[in-house]
Specification:
- The chain is α/β, with parallel strands linked by helices.
- Helix content is 38%, strand content 13%.
Length: 644
């Protein structure tokens, strides 16, 4: 049983645990902004296990105290090869602050959900400490923060442009994206005796060199020079123009090397590795994880992020949606890397052996749940493609969007006698399931949707139309809202066919570039007319390395360099967000005045006065939710009685 595992089943996080293994020196020391959870959903665990699989001695220092005498940074001593730093599974600024820049009171990646166990700009703070303590030891940085800050980027919290994170932190090398392949190559070269400073041509890495130094030789790579950091500071248009090349080269099969001058340095960003093969991604997920937090945390409380994913299965990586506000493709790439059925079913069996497993897999998904095994029909076409999205403005005719492999896999998981239900907790791309948008339908869409409705919805299904305005949706790289109407109709039909009450919960964003107050008023009116009282809503938060963030900062679309309106002031953002909450009486007068000021008096009756029609729809939705909850509770009660 997992609870009885010896401490040495986890990677060591204390000096005592290192000594328990009989080690007197470490090859690599990892410093992490997250607590150590030995699970494939936590990046530091994956990196640690890969280093271990290469025959090296590795230890982790999770959430070191950066405010005291720095003993946590010194307790493991000096590694033979390098220090590796990751701020954790989230950018620390997103982790610490809301869209309105209010400090959060919790941290999902810390025991007990406690806040304050990592600094702002974590990677930079940790690196500077290590460079002061061990100036001659190389520091390799990676993870989401380093990956998305690898070039000149806009920082929302400081409201200014920052240079690349290598320049800011003083680190020696950066691995961007999902780092297994570049990490393995780095480790193998170091073990062969190649000096760290000579590791200049490993794909998917970035380094700094002197501004006038000769570029490292690689006859297979073309090089594209971006506008310098200094020019970006002077000219927002140059910063916007850079992003088109950064995004395209991040998502190409045969990408160019990027360079960017900054001060006395030249940033060199080597092209990414091709998407991982099935064998390569299986090797990463099949490592000997305990799937549990380190026992050290038992008395400090549960780790919220772990509780959410402990019984989940990640089936693939990458996302070809290319949404303007999303960082998934910037970090994981647009090409899907799928695990084998064998590897996934093996992990399902492992989950069923966990001592507190009650028969329910919380998520059988990925970045977008229904992209498993989807790829180009003719690879040569994909090899020449520069588009950041495979499904916008239309679905590429070369993209195989069959849901058959996914449906068959769901059925195989269902066939495991220890699994009562395997839910889909990841977001489903509803547009891939509508005949009007997905014209590559091979007949598998309805079969998949019926399987999901009947077997894989945990009471309610969450989807993300994000907006109702076609103009804003084009900026978002999302399909017209008319396709959501079609999806809802089909979803309701399947629920009715099987006598189920499983409401849809749509996600929406306010203040996204392109969105106006009038469009938000229309959004409120249209979703109200559909019977929704919106729950899953958020204000747009600019994060590094997205199209939407570039537009927010510059006012220009990076692909056209044409102006796009964006709500930026606190008042403008508040006015847009307000329309989500038309149903609150205290907002009625403000909304009434706002609609009059924009010449949309016609919406006043729809949003505020036409309660009878809406209340009928809401009552129906709420009855569905109550019925679904009651059925779930009744099933739970019966299972409990059977056990007794």
């Amino acid at each position: 049983m997992f609870d009885n595992r010896p401490l040495t089943d986890w990677l060591p996080i204390t000096r005592k645990e290192v000594e328990m293994r009989g080690w007197d020196e470490l090859d690599v020391i990892l410093i992490s902004g997250d607590a150590y959870v030995d699970h494939p959903a936590f990046g530091t665990a994956v990196i640690g296990r890969i280093i271990e699989s290469e025959g090296l001695k590795v230890a982790i220092v999770p959430q070191p105290n950066w405010k005291d005498d720095l003993r946590d940074f010194k307790k493991m001593g000096r590694p033979k090869l390098f220090f590796g730093i990751s701020s954790g599974c989230m950018d620390p600024m997103i982790n610490h602050y809301t869209a309105s820049k209010r400090k959060r009171s919790t941290d999902a990646y810390t025991p007990g959900g406690a806040a304050g166990f990592r600094p702002d700009y974590t990677t930079t703070v940790y690196t500077k400490i290590l460079k002061k303590l061990y100036p001659d030891v190389p520091v390799l940085i990676g993870g989401i923060e380093a990956s998305l800050r690898r070039v000149t980027h806009y920082d929302y919290w400081a409201d200014k442009l920052f240079p690349n994170i290598l320049e800011m932190s003083g680190a020696d090398m950066l691995i961007y994206g999902m780092g297994e392949m570049p990490l393995r190559e780095t480790l193998r070269l170091l073990q062969k005796g190649v000096p760290f400073e000579s590791l200049t041509t490993i794909p998917q890495t970035a380094i700094l060199r002197g501004r006038r130094d000769t570029l490292p030789a690689n006859k297979n790579w073309e090089t594209f020079e971006l506008h310098s950091h200094e020019k970006c500071l002077r000219d927002k248009r140059s910063f916007a123009a850079n992003f088109k090349h950064i995004e395209q080269e991040s998502n190409k099969v045969n990408a160019m090397r990027l360079t960017q001058a900054v001060g006395d340095h030249m940033l060199i960003v080597n092209p990414p590795y091709p998407p991982m093969s099935e064998k390569e991604i299986d090797a990463s997920f099949d490592l000997p994880y305990t799937r549990m937090p380190h026992p050290k945390y038992k008395k400090r409380g549960s780790i919220p992020a772990y509780e959410m994913i402990r019984f989940s299965i990640n089936m693939h990586r990458g996302c070809f949606g290319g949404c303007s506000f999303c960082t998934i493709s910037a970090h994981q790439g647009k090409f899907i890397a799928s695990r084998s059925e064998e590897s996934i079913l093996k992990e399902v069996e492992t989950v069923t052996q966990m001592p507190d497993f009650k028969g329910y897999i919380s998520d059988l998904g990925g970045p977008s749940a229904n992209m498993y095994r989807m790829k180009g029909k003719i690879q040569e076409i994909c090899d020449r493609c520069v588009s950041p999205s495979c499904i916008h403005p239309v679905i590429c005719s070369n993209l195989d969007t069959s849901h058959k492999p996914l449906t068959e896999l769901y059925k195989k998981v269902d066939a495991n006698p220890k699994v009562k239900k395997a839910f889909i907790g990841s977001g489903i791309r509803y547009d891939l399931l509508t005949d009007s948008y997905n014209k590559n339908n091979d007949g598998s869409l309805d079969e998949y949707m019926e399987q999901v409705v009947c077997r894989h919805v945990s009471g309610r299904l969450k989807v993300a139309p994000e907006h109702t305005s076609d103009a804003t949706l084009r900026v978002m790289r999302k399909p017209s809202f008319k396709h959501f109407h079609e999806f809802k109709k089909k979803y309701d039909q399947f629920n009715k066919k099987h006598d189920l009450n499983q409401p849809l919960i749509p996600y929406f964003i306010s203040s996204h570039p392109g969105s106006t107050e009038e469009e938000m008023a229309n959004l409120a009116a249209e979703t109200k007319d559909m019977g929704f009282k919106l729950e899953q809503v958020q204000d747009f938060t600019p994060t590094p390395m997205t199209v939407a963030t570039v537009i927010y900062y510059t006012g220009l679309h990076p692909y056209t360099l044409k102006p796009i309106y964006t709500a930026k002031t606190r008042k403008e953002k508040k006015n847009q967000h307000l329309f989500f909450f038309w149903h609150k009486r205290e907002n009625h007068q403000i909304i009434r005045d706002k609609l009059k000021s924009i010449g949309r008096e016609d919406l006043i009756e729809k949003l505020i006065n036409d309660k009878k029609k809406f209340n009928k729809k809401v009552a129906l939705n709420e009855r569905k939710i109550t019925t679904a909850k009651n059925k779930f509770r009744e099933k739970k009660r019966r299972r409990k009685n059977r056990r007794i």
